[in-house]
Amino acid sequence: MSRLPDHLRILFVSDRDACRGPIAKGFLQSLGGAGITAESSGIEARPVLPETVRVMSEVDIDVSRHVSRTTADLGTATFDLVVTLGDRAREWCAEIRAKGTGGAEEDDPRLRNPLFGEVPLRLHWSIPDPTAGVEGGPELLAACRTTRDLLREHVAALLGHGYLGALARERERQARLLDSLDEGILVHDAFRRIYLFNRAAERITGLSREAVLGRDCHGVFAPDGLCGRQCASCRGSELPAERCEYSTTFTRPDGTERRLRVVINPVRLDDTGARGVIASLRDDTEVTELRHRLHSTRSFHGMVGVSRAMQEIFETIRQAATADFPVLIGGESGTGKELVANAIHNESRRQGGPFVPVSCGALPETILESELFGHVRGAFTGAIRDKKGRFELAHGGTLFLDEVGELSPAMQVKLLRVLQEKRFEKVGGERTIQVDVRIIAATNRDLRAMVKAGAFREDLYY
Questions:
Q1: Is the dihedral of CA 343, 349, 353, 355 positive or negative?
Q2: Which DSSP category does 266 fall into?
Q3: H/E/C letters for each residue in 404-457?
Q4: 263: closest CA among 244, 249, 286?
Q5: Under a CB-based contact definition with an 8 Å cutoff, are residues 411 and 364 in contact?
């Protein structure tokens, strides 16, 4: 929907793009008028046959300048209708759609190829390959003439029976309906390729349709996506199985931040069982700000305060929640440092994940190591079973390290490694465990003074 609804783009796919594709493209361009753009491609690319050029010249259509190309050469082009010419092309397209893009490199154009997505309508013409079993000469020329006449009939029927006109009107109707909505609408297929993006979505995200359509959702909305990595297709390769709803903070290309309410619904896209996702986007930025102002005397994640100082703290919490960096909270004992940590977690994109607190000063070092990293059975006396540590339990969420100033130098080294590499081994274990955890630490001690005194590692502090 990146162009006027009455302008249709049609793609013909054959096995070599040397005869049937150029012929069908030539007839559609000749008969279809200015409102239609025709393209052709092949499973592989071969030079256009001399016989193809000759039989088309007999009906005053010049295809001598046709440049054959493969479907991989299509890049990010999108189409309204894909017509497969011959059974091999149809079977190949079906096979590629089933396989997806597994194993493709990040910059592989197949990742954005429209044949893999669900965007175009599909039509099959069972036109045999004129070169099959024919060596050349008069026999091949006659076969090409037969193919030409068949394709002329098919193209004439496509145009003459009003099919393309009906398609154009239906697309226009859908475009008007979707663009009349105040909510942004985004639809992507099983491979996260976006093929529908209405005007409200443009306004909310600050991105144009042309910049979005045909591309991977993760590539467009890097690094955390519109969902803040809260939907199933961000956490893994599977599409979400049921409706989910959440709020997230999205940074637009101009640097402004918007508070969005996102609703994700799995959808069945066609009668083949192909699945995708439809997401509705609502910009709640102004509403959220008004709520904060109107209800400033109410609780903010368990904290109550009406003074300017407390309002500034609440705003700092919101700002800290938009990034995924570690946070250090300082303050005297009993001032609510854990409440602040919990508020940061609940305001962040990790709000759907676990919040796991641990007091570093309440446990001896040997127990603290097992508490943080877990242990395997037999690692020490009393270790009768494997146990997950707090880092592993906090995967996908936030780990709150209270009284971090009480950590021993040895434990500081181990914590630094996890912060730098996002991985660790359990006590007594050999397998390295990778985790995605945000660290929020708190202390009632002056860590700067401890760094100067050599009691706290400078690299860990920074």
A1: negative
A2: E
A3: HHHCCHHHHHHHHHHHHHCEEECECCCCEEECCCEEEEEECCCHHHHHHHCCCC
A4: 244
A5: no
Structure confidence by residue, pLDDT tens digits, 354-386: 999 999 888 888 788 888 998 888 888 888 889
Amino acid residing at 190: A
Amino acid at 427: V
Work out the pLDDT band at 111, boundaries 50, 70, 90. Answer: very low
Q: Whole-angstrom Cα distance, residue 190 to residue 217?
A: 11
**List of residues 6+ apart from 119 with CB closer than 8 A:** 78, 79, 189, 193, 195, 196, 214
In angstroms, what CA-CA distances link 370 with 105, 304, 318? 40, 36, 33
**Residue in this structure with the two tokens 């009768």, named with its chain if needed:** 384
User: Which DSSP helix (H) or strand (E) runs through 363?
Assistant: none
Residues 6+ apart with CB under 8 A from 252: 205, 206, 207, 258
Let me know: does 83 contact 13? Beta carbons within 8 Å.
yes
Rounded distance between C-alpha atoms, residue 380 and residue 401, angstroms: 24
Q: How far apart, in whole angstroms, are the C-alpha atoms of residue 341 and residue 350?
A: 12
Which residue's structure tokens are 């919040």? 355
Q: Please say if the pLDDT value at position 409 is more than 60.
A: yes
Domains and CATH numbers, the chain: 8-167 (3.40.50.2300), 182-287 (3.30.450.20), 304-461 (3.40.50.300)
The separation between CA 384 and the C-alpha centre of its own chain, rounded to angstroms, equals 43
Cα dihedral sign, 108-85-166-155: positive
pTM: 0.52
Q: Measuring CA to CA, which residue among 354, 353, 307, 360 is closest to residue 337?
A: 360
Q: 1, 81, 99, 97: which is closest to 40 by C-alpha? A: 81
- For 203, the enclosing helix (H) or strand (E) is helix 199-205
Q: How far is CA 63 from CA 20, 49, 209, in A?
A: 11, 10, 33
Which helix (H) or strand (E) segment holds residue 344: the answer is helix 337-347
Contact 372, 390 (CB under 8 A): yes
